[in-house]
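Retry 2 of 3 after timeout on previous attempt. Resubmitting structure tokens to design endpoint.
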């Protein structure tokens, strides 16, 4: 029974909401139970559910597709009289909270078709936006009237029967010639489920053979395994890299081997903060006082260095941490693809397919939206955006780039290092002035002009500074040190409009740092 523990919890948690959705689709309690059990069994038999794959969304979308293949209608309500597809769109968007783009992806329809059919259906059932709101309330009331027996036992029984049948078929398949089995395994490995909506990430078959090689991890003897985030209420204050081996080892005068696409160093440490309630999920926790605790957590497969070219050069990689400190994303050296983790739930999402050298020739990075929901990965001139809540992966065309993304080339030529604001409109960078000290430039990315020039803290002598990141839409965190001796002066939060500075305590003086919830207790 242990192997079904997670599945049992999923059924017990979601059976009422799923039966409510099925009742809206079918109009019949009996048909709703049947449709729900079919959906639950399908989820249990797939590679799902795992916490990071959102089994609830997967069960709902499986239900929509099943209903469209075998639509039923009982009763004489206005909703039931709708054709099957508009009925599904109304229930999914107004009751289950699915977006129109998600339904277009799930049903394989153009977005325009989804929008027009949904608008027409809402017009049939109600009038205007207020009509849609009233309709959503009516749907919720109808769904709450569903008679829901405990489906745990029949769902588990059906799952066991299908698994036994699957095991028998597997035994028969063992008699198939080994060559066919190997081809089948390779095909399965080339296609990896990426979200609850059923998208697959597969290698680009148009690439040349030499670019089809996935980027390699630090090596088969590295012992790296995919990291799993523990469930905790603690949040990430910041992340710092671990110590890397010497990447510039001598080759005794021989040409350096090509290492393009190889992850040559991995390992970051997350520094966490929180209250007493998050302690059981973590290891060592130090508490300054009740309710104010800290902990550290290593992420050994988070990449630091990604080699490129035919020499010892490499790109420096950093994880992306959400501003609330609850999510972190990085290039996994163990899985050779970008992943994101959610600490409160322990959930995980894939953000990219397995990378090839062509994806990293011009560098690669991951970023996160201000609300922590959307992650964007840059690969070989293309960008992939993942909605963590739904798992939907969307390629972003060039015209959807933000002002700071469009200005990246200009910023690289003029500043080298900069940080983009959460709004996507401004960038922050430092520039050495004639007096020897660095000043902070706040740049309007749209016009590519310096919006503010702000003096940075000093003790009277010339200083050197580095932009660490934006604390919010207005404040920038800067690290400052004495230019002559290199003695650190500390971290400061600088108001991008007024220039007001305040010291930020508790951050380590290292080569690199990625900010999270800096102001967390």
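Retry 2 succeeded. Sequence:
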């Amino acid at each position: 029974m242990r192997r079904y523990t997670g599945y049992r919890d999923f059924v017990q948690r979601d059976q009422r909401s799923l039966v409510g959705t099925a009742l809206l689709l079918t109009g019949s309690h009996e048909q709703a139970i049947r449709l729900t059990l079919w959906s639950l069994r399908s989820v249990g038999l797939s590679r799902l559910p795992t916490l990071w794959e959102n089994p609830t969304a997967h069960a709902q979308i499986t239900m929509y597709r099943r209903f469209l293949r075998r639509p039923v209608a009982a009763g004489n309500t206005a909703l039931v009289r709708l054709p099957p597809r508009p009925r599904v769109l109304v229930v999914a968007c107004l009751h289950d909270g699915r977006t129109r783009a998600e339904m277009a992806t799930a049903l394989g329809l153009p977005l325009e078709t989804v929008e027009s059919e949904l608008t027409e259906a809402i017009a049939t059932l109600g009038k205007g936006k207020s009509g849609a709101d009233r309709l959503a309330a009516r749907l919720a009331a109808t769904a709450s009237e569903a008679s829901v027996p405990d489906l745990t036992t029949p769902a588990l029984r059906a799952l066991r029967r299908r698994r036994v049948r699957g095991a028998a078929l597997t035994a028969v398949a063992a008699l198939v010639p080994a060559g066919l089995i190997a081809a089948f395994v390779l095909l399965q490995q080339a296609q990896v489920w990426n979200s609850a909506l059923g998208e697959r990430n597969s290698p680009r078959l148009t690439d040349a053979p030499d670019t089809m090689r996935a980027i390699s991890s630090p090596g088969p003897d590295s012992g790296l395994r995919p990291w799993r985030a523990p469930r905790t209420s603690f949040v990430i204050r910041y992340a710092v890299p671990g110590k890397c081996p010497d990447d510039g080892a001598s080759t005794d005068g021989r040409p350096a081997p090509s290492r393009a696409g190889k992850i040559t160093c991995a390992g970051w440490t997350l520094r966490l903060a929180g209250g007493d309630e998050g302690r059981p999920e973590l290891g060592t926790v130090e508490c300054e006082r009740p309710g104010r605790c800290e902990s550290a957590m290593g992420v050994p497969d988070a990449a630091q260095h990604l080699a490129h070219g035919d020499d010892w050069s490499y790109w420096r990689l950093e994880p992306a941490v959400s501003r609330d400190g609850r999510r972190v994303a990085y290039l996994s050296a163990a899985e050779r693809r970008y992943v994101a983790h959610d600490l409160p739930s322990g959930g995980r999402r894939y953000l990219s397919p397995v990378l090839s050298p062509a994806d990293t020739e011009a560098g690669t990075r991951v970023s996160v939206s201000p609300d922590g929901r959307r992650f964007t990965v840059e690969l070989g001139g293309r960008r992939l955006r993942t909605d963590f809540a739904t798992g939907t992966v969307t390629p972003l065309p060039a015209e959807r780039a933000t002002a700071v993304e469009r200005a990246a080339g200009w910023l690289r030529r003029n500043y080298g290092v900069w940080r983009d604001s959460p709004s996507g409109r401004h960038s922050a960078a430092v520039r050495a002035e004639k007096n020897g000290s660095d000043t902070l430039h706040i740049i309007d990315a749209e016009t590519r002009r310096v919006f503010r020039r702000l003096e940075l803290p000093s003790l009277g002598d010339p200083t050197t500074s580095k932009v660490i990141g934006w604390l919010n839409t207005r404040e920038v965190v800067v690290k400052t040190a004495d230019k002559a001796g290199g003695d650190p002066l500390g971290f400061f939060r600088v108001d991008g409009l007024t220039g007001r500075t305040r010291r930020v305590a508790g951050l380590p003086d290292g080569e690199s740092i990625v900010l999270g919830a800096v102001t967390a207790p």
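Attempt log closed. Residues 230 and 282 are 7 Å apart (CA to CA).
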